[in-house]
């Protein structure tokens, strides 16, 4: 449901494609989409694979980075890598080639994996928001309930749920014969009825976009509200007003980036699919859908930048893992795990892991 199943000559092209087909005696025209979209997909794939691989490397390399939140970030990076490797190359071929050339099995598998990974990504982002809200608002209580086993259980449940709920895509995806400057083969969704197709599209819109967006927004709004209030939990360290205000401003900026990124990357394609499901079909909508696909795919490449490298701990761990890259910025060696003064001092390496993570999350890193 997330990906366009045909190339620029698909049934959404409307009258323009019909006119071009009627001209006869010529091969398919070479449109800008045929090279521009695959080039953009290739850039997304390169940046996404490098960025997500670095996230996994940094977390697994440094013991201080093995926190509950970073477990979710690694799960998100793994999902993005799976999506980039298994789906993006096949989708890129739809634009320069007139037909689907990979057979019916790959037609079902590629579209199924796209739905699974897109759904797993969005639900993982929601789980991260709930987790960060919980640990920021109830830091001491969260130390008792937030365990690696719980994080693993949630991540496995997300994957199992995504695999099961995406089954209709694999069942109803099939090859269909078509005509566009000659006989062609398209990889399309063929539901038993229009009502069933609309129901699944509405479900996909809710599960993959609207509910995660509402969850992310609500969690961070509640978190910011509570950060501006005095703590009600005993023994919780209180920050000076100036430092607390700076911290809230920093977290607020990150919240705006997170919500805007999710809204911009996933909104266009979901709205286009929803409009198309209710009978709106035009060449303009088809072109908007191509742009929407590019935006949704780019989410897999920018996730590492927003959810990992915007945090000070990730940046310092990355510098520690690849010091040669940052020789031009060296001002002395920085130990992994230390925090900047603006973040409330240092986290001692001997401090309990839960306290370090609580400080890490409360600072919005």
Automatic annotation (TrEMBL):
The chain crosses the membrane at residues 35-59, 71-92, 112-130, 151-172, 200-223, 255-278. One of its GO terms (biological process) is positive regulation of DNA-templated transcription. Pfam families: 7tm_1. The keyword RNA-binding does not apply. It is found in: Cell membrane. InterPro entries: GPCR_Rhodpsn, GPCR_Rhodpsn_7TM, KiSS_1_rcpt. One of its GO terms (cellular component) is plasma membrane. Its main location: membrane. This is KISS1 receptor b. It comes from Lates calcarifer (Barramundi).
């Amino acid at each position: 449901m997330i990906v366009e199943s045909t190339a620029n000559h698909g049934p959404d092209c409307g009258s323009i494609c019909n006119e071009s087909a009627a001209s006869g005696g010529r091969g398919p025209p070479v449109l800008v989409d045929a090279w521009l979209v695959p080039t953009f997909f290739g850039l997304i794939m390169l940046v996404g694979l490098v960025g997500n691989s670095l996230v996994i490397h940094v977390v697994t390399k440094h013991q201080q980075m093995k926190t509950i939140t970073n477990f979710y970030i690694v799960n998100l990076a793994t999902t993005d890598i799976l999506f980039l490797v298994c789906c993006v190359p096949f989708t890129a071929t739809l634009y320069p080639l007139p037909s689907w050339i990979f057979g019916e099995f790959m037609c079902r598998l590629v579209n199924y994996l796209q739905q699974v990974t897109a759904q797993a990504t969005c639900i993982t982002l929601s789980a991260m928001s709930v987790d960060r809200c919980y640990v920021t608002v109830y830091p001491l209580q969260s130390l008792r309930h937030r365990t690696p086993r719980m994080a693993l259980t949630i991540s496995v449940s997300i994957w199992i749920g995504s695999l099961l709920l995406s089954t209709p895509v694999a069942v109803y995806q099939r090859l269909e014969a078509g005509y566009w400057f000659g006989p062609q083969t398209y990889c399309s969704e063929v539901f038993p009825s229009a009502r069933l197709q609309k129901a699944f599209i509405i479900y996909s819109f809710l599960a993959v976009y609207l509910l995660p967006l509402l969850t992310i927004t609500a969690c961070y709004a509640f978190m910011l509200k509570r950060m501006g209030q005095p703590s009600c939990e005993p023994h919780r360290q209180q920050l000076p007003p100036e430092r607390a205000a700076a911290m809230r401003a920093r977290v607020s900026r990150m919240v705006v980036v997170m919500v805007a990124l999710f809204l911009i990357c996933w909104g266009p394609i979901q709205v286009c699919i929803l409009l198309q499901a209710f009978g709106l079909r035009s060449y303009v909508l088809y072109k908007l859908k191509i742009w929407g696909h590019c935006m949704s795919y780019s989410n897999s490449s920018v996730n590492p930048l927003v959810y990992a490298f915007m945090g000070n701990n990730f940046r310092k761990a990355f510098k520690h893992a690849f010091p040669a890259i940052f020789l031009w910025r060296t001002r002395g060696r920085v130990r992994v795990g230390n925090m900047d003064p603006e973040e409330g001092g240092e986290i001692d390496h001997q401090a309990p892991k839960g306290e370090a993570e609580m400080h890490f999350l409360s600072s919005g890193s």
